[in-house]
Amino acid sequence: MDIKLMDFWPRILDATLQTLQMVGFSLAFSLILGLPLGIILVITRPGNLYGNKPFFNVLNGIINFLRSIPFIILLVAIIPFTRLLIGTTIGTAAAIVPLVVFAAPYIARLVESSLLEVSPGMIEAAEAMGAKPWQIIFRVMVPEAFSSLILNITIATIGIVGASAMAGFVGGGGLGDLAIAYGYQRFETDIMIVTVLLLVLIVQLIQSLGNTLSKTSRRR
User: CA 155 → CA 4, 43, 45, distances in Å?
Assistant: First the structure.
């Protein structure tokens, strides 16, 4: 093994931890925003529990607008907002803000997709039995879509991993920052290879965990 690479392992470990931190916090905040938004998209859709076409169209348009912006552009566009919240635009904490703005609408759309897979017949049966709207949402729709939700959240998490690597272009930290600063700008090919392999490993672990959890929930 290259001595330079051996000496570099502590920095690679720090960058890996930064990536996991970015992904973990971004996913948590994105779920807090995206899950309710996805549910609202479904229940306010015309013909559904709280059908409201004007409200649905506005919310749908906002989510489509945010999702249409490439992450690298969004990263730069909301720099003033990031600085307002965090006080800086550089580092792991600063990278979490654009990651959440990027991922929350994406998760909302994935949640909407999962909930729309629930059979209308089950919802009609719950309504016939006198279930209240909130009971239909949390006791019928969400449990029935749970396996699909897990898979879709897994997809979103992998998307956040990829976006966190792009955050390295503006000094966001993590493996992406390391790959750009050393693997690309300084032509350290061995460091680039290691960072890519680590990102691949993280993605594989996330996908395997998501598949396992989805299968487990489906058996129940």
Answer: 35, 23, 24
